[in-house]
Amino acid sequence: MALTAEDVANLARLARIELSDVELEVLAPQLDVILESVARVSEVAAQDIPPTSHALPLTNVFREDELRPCLPRDEVLAGAPAAEQMRFRVPRILGEEA
Amino acid sequence: MSLQYPAAAEIIRQPAADLGAKIKSGELSSVEVTRAHLDRIAEIDGELHAFLYVDGERALTSAARVDAKIAAGELVGPLAGVPLALKDILTYTGAPTTCGSKILEGWLPPYDATVTRRLLDHDIVILGKTNLDEFAMGSSTENSAFGPTRNPWDLDRIPGGSGGGSAAAVAAFEAPLAIGTDTGGSIRQPAAVTGTVGVKPTYGGSSRYGLVALASSLDQPGPCARTVLDAALLHQVIAGHDPCDSTSIDQPVPDVVAAARSADIAGMKVGVVREFRGEGYAPGVEQRFREAVELLASLGAEIIEVSCPHFVYALPAYYLILPAECSSNLAKFDAMRFGLRVGDDGVASAEQVMAATREAGFGAEVKRRIIIGTYALSSGYYEAYYGQAQKVRTLISRDFDNAYSQVDVLVSPSTPITAFKIGEKVDDPLAMYMNDLCTIPSNLAGNASASFPVGLAPEDGLPVGLQVMAPPLADDRLYRVGAALEASLESAWGGPLLDRLPEPGVAR
């Protein structure tokens, strides 16, 4: 399968991680070895086996729709990298050319 | 170097159950006990590095409050006033929750985890937050952004992971109790390599609310202790239904304390997993495991060899399911609402800031797993990887169902080898993943499991753990087996295994 540094760069873009060239070179062969090893799962799992997404069977449960206190705004914003006017302050979300 | 006052050296070696009883009766005060442990931490943790944050002042204030409660004749639980170390992946207001990551360095959570809340409600004194592999990804605590924890048995070796800090703190008498979290072995493997007790409750048995998620379908908080009864008492405190966790089980907690006290395994059917032996297992691990199984037989258990043919596929399935879940869970570290933000210069876009922050804030193993997860979930590969891994998960559950139709519990070594040297496996992720070979099946099936100390490997003098696995909600069986082993082994050894622990700082 041989992942290239370019493949890893593409995956990193999808995962929103700005990897350096050095990291890409180190990661590609490491990920290749890992993926080759985990690909063994295809040896055993036949078509008719149902997938398990969760350890124990779950059924949806409902609760009364009651008002409950939420987290205090000041304390939540205190943990934010930047806050302004009692809100999270974020960098621009639109591109220049957009 | 000795402790400042003579009584302290004796206090820190006592089990939590004894400390709780003495605090309750007034023979000891919680302040005295808390101070003895804080002094121990001050004395040895510079070298051991089990703690990321020591909450000394608040611990002493809480201890004084418990003492006042007891003096006023208020009814308190068996662990009231007893100190505990909390893994730094569970939130506790007033102390930073870092998850061992630079991306959360210094972050103060606005709420308590349910586990934390229950500890506080039961008057347990929280000493501080313990070190871990970043976001619990690892088997050695070397992936902590704040430096590794050392194994008290040999300071050049790893204490296991991800909960190496909790296990080392308990083994080195910095705390009689600790909380761990187990996604693929992060409670049991550190317990095994430090000679302590660690229990992973049935998935859903203890609440994940306020536990920073690694893999939501696998994560489970549980107790770490030096004795089986102490683990059971702590299990009792933290377990039980929590409406804040949608996967929490709404059923009574199995009577783990009574099981730990009974230690009766006469007539119990114990299955030995055939697949977990041979190549890759250290001779001393196999020897101590075999001896422990013989001991169980001599105590009246019926030993049956059981085959779980798909367990060998648990590791590859896990290293697809976990990265898939973690790549999704860790998407929340986006530099917008909490933690680190870098490159916000007024020009860079949110997306650029996000990518730069995640590059700067995440360590190598976290990046590896996020990228594997992204790959496994990407269109074109989803069915071949994640889809297949989910089918393997079904096969592993069926192996367990088949085994439990013949036996009451399964046993295996907790981990194939004893503690290895710090740095030995950092550049070989696949070799590192092998540490969780025996522990992962239980997480994938969601049943209960534990590691108990069964001696030192003759070749290196390092602790060996025996893993017990029980069906979902049969957590009590773990404690019956563990307590039976503990009683017989300690009478053969003439005392607990940890009596043989070298003093930190003293060369072996």
Task: Give short descriptive properties of this protein.
heterodimer; A: about 100 residues; mainly alpha; two-stranded antiparallel ribbon; B: alpha/beta; Amidase signature (AS) enzymes; eleven-stranded mixed β-sheet; 11 strands; about 40% helix; about 10% strand
- Name the CATH superfamily assignment of chain B: Amidase signature (AS) domain
Oligomeric form of this entry? heterodimer
Strand order of the largest sheet of chain A: 1-2
What structural class is derived from the secondary structure elements of chain B?
alpha/beta
Mean pLDDT of chain B: 96
Largest sheet of chain B: 11 strands, mixed
How far apart the termini of chain B lie comes to 16 Å
Number of domain modules of chain B: 1
Radius of gyration of CA atoms of chain A, rounded to a whole number = 23 Å
Count of helical segments of chain A?
A: 3
Report the count of strand segments of chain A: 2
Describe this structure in words.
The complex is a heterodimer of chains A (98) and B (508). Chain A has a domain at 5-43. Helix content of chain A is 35%, strand content 4%. Chain A contains three helices and two strands; from the N terminus they run αααββ. The mean pLDDT of chain A is 89. Chain A has helices spanning 5-14, 21-38, 73-78, and strands at residues 83-84, 87-88. Chain A has a two-stranded antiparallel sheet with strand order 1-2. Chain B has 508 residues and is an alpha/beta fold. In chain B, 40% of the residues lie in helices and 12% in strands. Chain B has 17 helices and eleven strands. In chain B, helix 10 links the parallel strand 7 and strand 8 (302-306). The two termini of chain B are 16 Å apart. The chains are: A mainly alpha (98), B alpha/beta (508). The interface between A and B is large, with 55 and 73 residues.
